[in-house]
Amino acid sequence: MVYIFGGISLDIIASKKCFDLGTSNPLKFSIRVGGVGFNILNHLEYNHNIFISAIGNDAFGQLVVEKVRRQNFNIAIQNINTDLNLEDIFKKNDKKLDKINYNDNKDSQSNETQIYEYQPSFKVFGDNFDNNICLIKNDKYQTSIYSAFMEGGNCLVAAADFEIIEKTLTFDIIHPILEKVDSKDICVIDSNLDPEECEKIILFLNSKGCKIFFETISLQKTLRVANILKNIFFTAPDVIEFNALLEGYSNIEQMIRDRNIQYILKTDGENGSILYGLDLKEPIHFKPPEELDVYDTTGAGDFLLSKIIEAFLMSRKIEESINYASEKVVEYLKELNR
Description:
By secondary structure, this protein is α/β, with parallel strands linked by helices.
């Protein structure tokens, strides 16, 4: 089973070869369902998966659900009674349990962390997990919105409001789902989640022994999680995000040892990518399969990660998975820019 915890949003994308700044630019907007978590689910050609996210009780949320249902996904929606304060409903028990060290790398520093006892107050979705998408509806916050201006295939500027994901996808709320994860599963987490909650979730999943794939998303969101991103299997930051993770370390080898990150793939668009790993004697360089002239690259990183996971599920080595995914990204970009 693949569990995906992350954002779903209404994406509003404007694309142009060159924008005229300070004035209105006539063009057609592309409006579609996005969000890193949803994009990964949408492109993952694998039958046994479940995506957990949140929407608001608003027109945007209704539009998201309608658009997703047209794509033949099964959807379960759980409504939270937001008349009550969530902090009152999900009270944390600060009784500390035994310390557990999840760092399997003997050469690295100890990543000793504490887990907390969970007090069940709310059961999400019961025991039926046959649905592809489980949405938690929260009346207090609006459905996530992402808007980007793509100039010549690159993001000129973008803005995102994923507060509902931060406030709703907390450890306490999704704990009943986390309990169902076992060591054979893959869990995907994106950095739209609140960093403190993300740390608790990763720690709990470490105790389950599953492989964690993490999506950094953007510079600002990478900076938020930089201090808690450890004990994961794979992440694929772009150059800017990669440099943010590397801050404070003399080299990448020291960083992945200290943080017990099995693999980091530094992606650099038309320049290809570089894979660093705990079990690699030296970095592996991947050249792009084909040079493309495109005006929109929205979601390419999410697509890449989904295909890496897909190939990995086929029992391919991580290097083979990256080659497979890179070729698929070319097809994705061609289709996106038709």
